[in-house]
Each structure stands twice: as structure tokens, then as C-alpha cells.
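Support reply, case 0932

Customer input (verbatim):
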Amino acid sequence: MHGLGNDFVIIDVRAPGTSEALDMSAAKASAIANRHHGIGCDQLIILRPSDKADVRMQIYNSDGGEVEACGNATRCVVKLLGESTSIETGGGMISGHVTDNGAIVDMGEPRFDWDAIPLAYAMDTLHMPVGWEDLQDPAAVNVGNPHVIFFVSDSDAVELDRLGPMIEVDPLFPQRVNVNVAHVKDGDIYLRVWERGAGLTRACGTGACATAVAAMQRGLVQSPVNVHLPGGTLVLSWQKGSSIMMQGPTTYVFSGEANWDDFG
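Our regenerated output:
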């Protein structure tokens, strides 16, 4: 499946006895995600049983690292299950319901405290006194995973393929970070994202959430706001003290079978 071009291999092991049999490693996840020798995806999603929700979702980036949250994948899972669904993730409990062409997902409340991002030391997270070359004065938000957001005059002009990997692994971010560059035009947000462990993607749901919240906190946009990514548009709604609501499309691409042993 994919959400705005952010694509996923989804493996459902909720049937009795199957979850225990699936032993996922970083090497195997990376092999499955490889677009030349594997199936190919930005993220690998494992659906497992949960005693807290309808389903537990594990998320592996294409480098094999397990991460806490993925907004586009959440919409895809809700649409795949075809009903109102509660989902247990490493970043917390989230829920959603289907729409005609996708899903609306409650992504939970954003976190702004420096140690919740997390950062290596205390600072103001709405206007961080740090920068990398021309990228200055970022904001930081945790929406189940860590994001740093730069508001610029033209997000398309930023060399994100060069600066993104540099910022991702900066010691300021002990769990690495997703890097967002955005500009505001006519009340809408235009966004590009370097995803931690995945690189440049067509869309990032949690990045859209984090960027919309940061823009609202700075008074740059009003809720709801359209967030335009290279793969398409998401609609984000948020009020202080409440959950972030994300609406957008999903696409079912294909289903198939593969030899498990081929992935190491």
C-alpha cells in the first residue's frame, strides 16, 4: 500500500501461532525493503495481536531500524482493516476510521518538552537557538517520533538530500531525528521531509503533523491546514491540548507471496 507515494510492505501475522513464528531482524527488514533485490518499500509494517488495541503495528524503516510511528502507514492500516480501528504503536495508542478514499487518524497529542523530543540538553523547542548552514531557528515536536522543522522562504530550494542526513545524526538528537523544511503560502504549508532511516520520501504523515503543529504554534497558519508534499496533500487539524487529526488518501497496490528464506 502507499499513502501519497510513501509506500509500505504490510505483513499481517495476527492469526493464532503466526506472530510468534515471525522473527524480524534489522537485516531481514532491510532486505525486504530493498527495491532492487527485495520487494521494495519505504517502511515495512508488521501487524501483530495486541491486548491493548485492535492491532499492534511494528514499523521498520528501509535501513532496518525499528521506529515508533508512521502517519501514512497508520492510515493505510486503518483502510486495510476497513473499520474504526485502535492501533498500539511504539509511540503510543492511536486510532482512526475509514473515508471514501482513505482514512482519518487521531495521532495523539504532540509533545514539546526538550526531553520528550528528545534533545541532548534543555532548550526552547519552539525557537531552537541552533542551526545548520542556512537552516536556522528550527522548532522541534514529538508526534510519536522526533521531528525538527525549519520554516524557509522556498522549501524546494533547500539541499535536503545533503543537509538532511547531516542533521539526522547530529549529537543534539540522541535518537536521531526526522528533518522537515517547509514554507507557507496562501495559508497552506509546502513540505519536504528527510525521514530518519529512510531518506527523502514522497510524503511523511508524522512530518506533516509536526510541521502543521509548529506552524500553528508560531501563528503562521490556522487549523485546519492543507499540507502539500511531493506525493500529494494531507489535511491537519489541531487545537492546543488536544490530539492531532490527519486526513488523507491511501492506495492498495498489490498482494503477493515471497520465499521467506530469500531475505536472509
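We compared this against your earlier run and they match. Two observations from our side: The first strand starts at residue 2 and ends at 3. The CA atoms of residues 169 and 176 lie 5 Å apart. Please reopen the case if you see a mismatch on your end.
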